[in-house]
Amino acid sequence: MTLEEILRQTRTVAVVGASANPARPSHGVYRYLKTHTDYDVYPVNPTISDLDGDPVYATLADLPVVPDLVDVFRRVEELPAVLADVLALPSLPATLWLQQGLFHEQVGRDAHAAGLHVVMDRCLKVDHAQWVGR
């Protein structure tokens, strides 16, 4: 599946590691997705409860839906735990997206083996703007 197909078929996005700090890339991507896309966007971060007036969920398991795409802003060493959380959901998201600067070969293999589309080391905001947001 191409990036454009992934982006066009996605309807719900969980942003794991969403930050309330406007200087953080995860905040900018979250705001872009909320204001410039038709996606239903769910911020996930156990350290905050509100982001721009929207509820923030502590874990993926707390979301009211299983998202189509899980966009990850976590440290590389935390990626196996994020994948474990994804795989523990009642049904699988279509795509695991590791933001720009994140690459983990084993997580990618395991996610792909579980049936997920895997995107690594790419910015969802940039790719959406390029492929869909025109």
Task: Tell me the domain tally.
Answer: 1
- CATH class categorisation: Alpha Beta
Shape: globular
Annotated CATH homologous superfamily? NAD(P)-binding Rossmann-like Domain
List the helices and strands and how they pair.
Elements: H1 3-9, E1 12-16, H2 25-36, E2 40-44, E3 50-51, E4 54-55, E5 69-72, H3 79-87, E6 95-98, H4 105-113, E7 117-119, H5 124-131
Parallel strand pairs: 1-2, 1-5, 5-6, 6-7
Antiparallel strand pairs: 3-4
Helix pairs in contact: 3-4
How would you describe the overall organization of this protein?
Residues 6-102 form the CoA-binding domain. This is Putative CoA-binding protein. InterPro entries: CoA-bd, NAD(P)-bd_dom_sf. The chain is of the alpha/beta class. The protein has one domain (3-74, 92-132): NAD(P)-binding Rossmann-like Domain (Rossmann fold, 3-Layer(aba) Sandwich). Helix content is 34%, strand content 19%. The protein is built from 5 helices and 7 strands. It has helices at residues 3-9, 25-36, 79-87, 105-113, 124-131; strands at residues 12-16, 40-44, 50-51, 54-55, 69-72, 95-98, 117-119. The strands form 2 sheets. A 5-stranded parallel sheet has the order 2-1-5-6-7, sandwiched between helices. The two termini are 20 Å apart. 35% of the residues are buried.
